[in-house]
Amino acid sequence: MSTNPLWYQAFEPRPAAQVRLYCLPCAGGGASSYRPWTPFVPEWAELRAVRLPGRQARHREPSFDDCDTAARALAGWLSEENAPYALFGHSMGAMLAYRATRFLLADGARPPVFLASACWPVRGVPPETMPATNDDDETFCAKVAGMGGAASELLADPDVRELVLPVLRADFALCHSYQYREEPPLPMPVSVYGGADDPVTVADSLGAWKAHADRLTGPRLFPGGHFFLQERTDEFAGIVFGELAAALRTVPLPADQGARP
């Protein structure tokens, strides 16, 4: 069984892939942000870019504005997976991937074989580093622009801004709703990445992950800020898939799935 295709886009479908990597976007981002990864996906994997409500193919649906509500919905459809899968998230996407994993474990559902987190500290991002939900439009947009990334460019166009601003506001409300919980270390391999000059997720804040994963790789820092991964797609995607391959070698596979990566 595959999970509900409404929730994801596979740019190169691979029904026989040994593992599916679900990639979740940052605030204001969509599934298309992972299209540049396509040339770097190994043949044994399928990349599925997650479609969140309120944007692109799901623009008629209301956006999530609460972390646990969104993560619970994600965990619900991921629980349909009956084959190895992994989760990668950038910023808000990393937060949702983490909380969804916690829900899956609590429910006794199949968890991901690997969790990869970029630019998000497990204890949460300090509220003052993000746009506030009660900021007026000009202040809010200025703070988003200060973070960099594609969303800041979209806000420069008045017509596009009218479309994307409600999604951004909902996304940052979701980010502010995150509540840190003391929980046992995650049992699956976890990799953590960050930008050395990230003003939002400062490098030192990523060290807290060490208490939340039994098998942690990182934190690994890269030159750049909060969107470093968009500036070095080939290098970064190669690292993520390399660590996914290592995680997959620890998981029993059905006999008909052939050699491991």
UniProtKB/TrEMBL annotation:
Do you know which InterPro entries this protein is assigned to? AB_hydrolase_fold, TEII, Thioesterase
Question: A single Pfam family, by name?
Answer: Thioesterase
Q: Which residues form the Thioesterase domain?
A: 20-240
The entry sums up its family as follows: Belongs to the thioesterase family.
Would you indicate the residue range of the signal peptide?
none
Highest taxon above the source species: Bacteria
SUPFAM superfamilies xref list: alpha/beta-Hydrolases
Protein name (record): Thioesterase II family protein
